[in-house]
Specification:
4 strands; 32% strand; alpha+beta; single chain
């Protein structure tokens, strides 16, 4: 009879065997803000809708007692609200870049899909807008 030569390996709980790929979803955040290139857009606030998908990675599971162990969607909503109050943006694209700049300060975030829509600018359309996806590059310049 042949004998198995298996070794029992003890796993250190402090070492991670998994990588977590997580996604934050923020759908249809609607804010009133002055946004636009034309004079009439600079005078009167308009409704603008934000939707985001934020991909981030983590090497450990989220802790139910530590809010810093997650990318907090409430913090993201506050950040966007604060950004649009700070300055006037002429273009959706420049507003998007400001959102990206702030969110990518969190090193866990790998990719952001951001959709921004003006809801009241053209009577013929329910909305007009942009969608931009930006990924963190791991290449060094």
């Amino acid at each position: 009879m042949k004998r198995n030569n298996f070794k029992i390996v003890k796993i250190d709980k402090n070492k991670s065997l998994f990588n977590y790929e997580k996604k934050i979803l923020i759908n249809e955040l609607i804010l009133n803000l002055k946004l636009g290139y034309y004079d009439f857009e600079k005078k009167k606030p308009q409704k603008v809708k934000f939707s985001l998908e934020i991909d981030y990675e983590d090497k450990k599971p989220s802790s139910d007692k530590d809010i810093k162990s997650i990318v907090n969607y409430g913090t993201i909503v506050k950040l966007i609200t604060k950004l649009v109050k700070k300055k006037h943006y002429n273009f959706l694209e420049t507003l998007a870049e400001s959102v990206f700049d702030e969110l990518f300060k969190d090193q866990r975030i790998a990719k952001i899909m951001l959709k921004i829509e003006k809801l009241e600018i053209l009577k013929q359309c329910s909305s007009v807008g942009i969608q931009i996806t930006k990924k963190r590059s791991h290449d060094k310049l």
